[in-house]
Amino acid sequence: MSGVVARRARNASLLLGLSVAFLVWHARQLEPMAAPQRFTGWLLLGLVAFLALYNARKKIAVVPLGSSAAWLQWHIYAGLFAVLIFFLHTGLQLPTGYFETGLAALFLLVALSGIGGLYVSRRTPPRLARRGEEVIYERIPRLIHALAEQAKALALESVATTRSRAIADFHAARLSAWFSTAQDAWQHIVGLEGAARRRARALAEFRTCLGPDELPVFDELTVLIAQKEDLDFHRANQGLLKYWFFVHVPLTHALLLFVVVHVILIYAFGGAR
Amino acid sequence: MPAVTRRPKRWDHPFDDTMSEAMVSELMTLEPWKGLAAWAHEELKPAQAEARVKDLRRHLLNDARLLTCQAGEIVIRVGDYGNSAFVVLEGAVRVVLEANVGLGAAAEKRFDQPKRGFFRSLAQLWTNQRGVEQRPAPRGDARAAPSTDADNAPVEHVPIVLSDVPAVLDHKRTARIEAGGIVGEIAALGRSPRTASIFAEGDGTRLLEIRWQGLRDIRKKFPPYKTYIDDIFRERILLQHLRATPFFQHVGDTPQLRRMLEEDRIADVFIEGLGLRPSERDVVTLEVAGQAVELLPLAQGRGWSGSEGIVLWRCRATIPAGPARVELVRALCEETGRKAVVVHRLGAGRVWQWCLAEAGSVEDADVHECEEGGSRGPEELMRRLLREIALHEIGRQTDFHSYGEVDKTQLGDGDAAEPVIVEAGHYPDGLLLVRAGAVRVSRQINRLERTVSYLGPGNSYGLRELAHNWRHPDRHVVMEHTLRARGYVDTLLIPTSVVTRFVLPSIPESDLPESYPEETDSPLDPVDVFEPAAGVDRNMVEFLVDRAFSNGTAAMVIDLERCTRCDDCVRACAQGHDGNPRFIRHGPVHAGFLIANACMHCNDPVCMIGCPTGAISREPTTGQVAINDPTCIGCATCANNCPYDNIRMVQPRSKDGVFYIDAQNMPHMKATKCDLCVTQAGGPACQNACPHDALRRVDLSDAGTLMDWMKR
Q: Rounded to an integer, what distance in angstroms lies between the CA atom of residue A129 and that of residue B562?
């Protein structure tokens, strides 16, 4: 068992044990406890505050506060524990009123986006590592532009070298627009290959129409197409890895705001005193 | 509108602002500078000589500083990285010859690079500059405009003093270096850790500390000094290397010698044990205190603490301690033309004595006497002496070899010519020690030669084959692997005859490498040849060697199967470096692992070789390679020398956002690179910032470290 797998097994076991222990303890304390929801509410508030602190930790990377990797482990398992506490706090009942519904929805969205982000961050890097060359995300548009220029130059040159407009026309009709920007983002993210297959079929069909002097040019163009597909793949998947934070973090900020209002409302009008 | 400023020059920031022309004039009356000036006037045309001496004065003025030490003050500590050498001007220093020997708590105290505290780390969030590469304007000549800036202050000399010098002298083997001698040149010129601790012998010992750029240039301009430095450099590194090599720890201490010592046949040890056959015709008779004393030469070895040679003498008479013994040592030195001699005498009651001396310091000759039952028995002294003599004997027969070139264009090219050091299938003609550089270890698999490992400084090759052949004289094996030089490599070759005589018998059986199995007569046909050795990814090893990454001690390795490309590492780096990251998350990839364009803090940092100002140097205690920004003149020598393109030249701007240019409209440049966050409390920010444990600073000189991390 590798170190990472062992760590996951250990942490998951600890979380499971802690959850079961807490559930048993909570069930026993339910009767004697005057306001069980207050306890779970404050616990949940503490957990949410702790989870939100991770973003602050990432912003102050040079301050010696422990490694980000260790923080992420705590963040993941504390987040999963928070989901359990959330359900205990709500008693598995649907919320009433717009505010409470909004609060519950925000919590669930934050939790789901977190779990989704975890899935994405585990699934996507190996796919990226196996596909094409490693590229820096910000450089991809420039690289795509360079490929488009190369493809265009190749197509134009083919008119002179082969005395045929076939490749140039094919490029203008089928490839020029495709080369100009990143394409098929969702297909690359989900892992569908329909667009790539259709393109391959069209290329194969077109190849059969070419003469012997056009084939080498076409093969060069095919290499550029493959490189463009790899760049599209990296653009889509690296973008996904970058931008899921823009769902998770703003939702967290909104959740924190709602939580503060929720506490004030509870203490002001809910008889929590 | 760019800011027009004077271009930084080499000596804008001298080693010590307080050095003056008057002090330099005084230095020029002392050796070795006086001798160098005399050489120039004798050998060169007057104009050339004048220019050369003027250069020497400028080096002394700008690249040196004067230190006055008290008795026992530590000048150099073993293991530290040094960027300077020390010339003894007055008094003497002692070099502790025993490797891995501490000098007590005081000497162990280290002054690490000061780290930022918690609040200073936090303050970086708002004190960081907001633009790209903003730097203060070049200050110009530091003597004309002294700075109050802490970065520009001369490096403070913090004295650490041994509390009990006599005890150290009594218990440690030391060598004495007197006025005119030089110490610390091994680390300074070799960009390596200090190989021995050195302390001042008496109060008022005056030393001239000279940074290595100055030493390098003086060597270039004064050939006799180059020869002198190169000779002692070779001699000292040889002995220090042997002393530091683990399987030489017991050398000279063979079972046969141990038996003789137990049987009180100490007198026979030198003759029979080491197999040294003195000749009666070499007997020297000296008249000491009116008494004729016969001395029998027992062993001769090259090099003794930088002197010209050593002779061990067995004395046939008891010489009383005091002036007579000093006279004997002096007479012996004069008679033999040696700078150092060892004399021993076995007398009744197992009294054993030995004297060491160097020419010019006979009055201070070490005289040790041991009596039975003392805290250090004669056997212990004998063992130590035997080891030294055996090491000298090994050193005398060891050959230096250099292979390859220091050429960055060759290093990155996997197909570049790699001179063969050892060829598989050849008779093992000796034990190979790697002193510097990287060596590819490969073996033939079918028709392909596959890299199986690599060696770096301090590693050795051939002991297993030699041990096997020594144990099984009827079933010899040949060299198992081919060794090739990747770039420039320095090696020491100890001949097989020396290894079998001095080294192998002294290694405990349990520490000897195991023999080759009987069914495998030739190690060239092992059954596991197509199977990777346990835990070793041969393709990765091949990749590391092809790209010469094995030189890196803190390479940034990124596991692309875990890296989410979030760039937290880049942001963290920028946060710790005034808003500008010091690496690029890009580089060669193998098996899903990326070696990023970040300084690897090499074992042998070739980037340092040409730096004219000393701006790029190694941190004394950790060895990290760092650039001192105020001293950098932007010549790009380091960036051009770095085989991995991990040093970038940037065009800094002022706080107003304008570029600095000189009167010829040429931009000022500065070299920048990763400093491994040497001043940050938490260590490398990139590694700490990675949420997925996908980035690690790895010591690639040991493939096992990387393999362990890869399998985590």
A: 9
